[in-house]
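Hey,

Quick one before I head out. I ran the complex with manganese (II) ion overnight. Inputs first:
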Amino acid sequence: MDIHPCGSAPSRRAKAEWFTGTVWQDPIVEAPAPARVRATTVRFEPGARTNWHTHPLGQTLYIVSGTGQVQTWGGPVREVRAGDVVWIPPHEKHWHGAGPATTMVHVAIHEALDGKHVDWLEPVTDAQYQGGGR
Ligand code: MN
C-alpha cells in the first residue's frame, strides 16, 4: 500500500498546445500496469477549455465545483455544474472547460489503451466556445 500525502506532488500547468487558457492538473491515480485507470483533478479558469479530443476507452467527468461547458462534435454547447457526472463514449470527439465567467473543477477518470488515454485534436475556437458553430 502506498499513501501519497497531499502536497507531495506539484500541480502541473496543462500544456498550451492542448488547452486554451490557464488550467492546472493534480493527479489522483496514475497506477502502474497492469492497472490502467487514471484520475486527475483539473482546474479551469474562466474561459479555459481543452482542445477537441477523443478517448480510446471513454471518459467520466465528475464536476466538483463551479459551472462549466461541454460539447460533442456536431452538438450544442451544454452547461454542467457541481455534482453533475458526464460520460463520454470511446472515440467521441468533444471538449470540456469552464464557463465564460466562472471557474470549473472536475475530476477526469479514464482508462489507458496500450498506454494512451487521449488523442488530441485542434483547439476550440472562440466562436465554437460561444456556441456559434464551427
Ligand atoms: Mn475528455
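Residues 12-129 form a domain with the Jelly Rolls fold (CATH 2.60.120.10).

Talk tomorrow,
K.
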